[in-house]
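Go through this chain.

——
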Amino acid sequence: MDIPIFIVDAFAREPFEGNPAAICLVGPEQELTEEKMQKIAAEMNLSETVFLRNKEKNGSFTKGNCFHIRWFTPTNEVNLCGHATLATAAVLYNELGNPSPRLTFDSLSGELGVSRDGNGFVMNFPLNETILQDKTDYQKLLELIVSMDCVDTVEYSPTTKKLLVRLVDNMTREQLETLTPDISSMMAAEVTGKVKGVMVTLRGSPENGSVSSEGETYDFVSRYFAPWNGIPEDPVTGSAHTVLAHYWGKVLKKQTLFARQCSRRGGDVRMRILEGNRIDLVGQAVTVLKGSFLL
């Protein structure tokens, strides 16, 4: 059995930027068990591998517009992955020439929509709310990431199981980028299953170095750690920005946001907060590999 596979750098304008994802196009007659999908994701060893099927039995990837999508990390399946959804749309539009004005993906997080936006793509996702927390409740975990003196606020997103850690405003982008969390100890410090990822974020300003290469100030910058899902640090995370946008949108009183995820690869994300607890995430993507998975 041959399964077409692509690797795409999402939230990137050039190869080797952003967050890479593998996309497997599974045909209507091809059967893949969850065990086999997990093994493929482990073999790819990227933060996420997508398994895409056409929703219609006789539908095609080149003309269809409704699909079933699943995302696997090297260790487990996840309910939502933004960058891999962006990468999937890039394959359908750019590599296969799909003419549909809007692509719809049925997922464990509900229906997700993607359309073109100039040179990039717009993903329509749920906006995930946060709840203020007592930071001392997470002190053991936080101290493995950053000094408690540097923590301003801690919030929690129950729908995504992500913890949002806002740093004090007098910290700099460089200080955020040079944090070295103790990843293995983080897993030992949180074993309840409540937290599946930690976002560390800082309000952007020219003074703290949060400026793009084009001179535009970021509204906020962040990093994201998810060792509980087999991802020590994710390069650029769409799902995290569905949470970050909710928080920073309230703080900054803005509906349109521009952010940078400050991993080693890094990537820019634009966000538009919509009515009905929805959000548009906007980004670009670059295909870097095409081939077949032989099973």
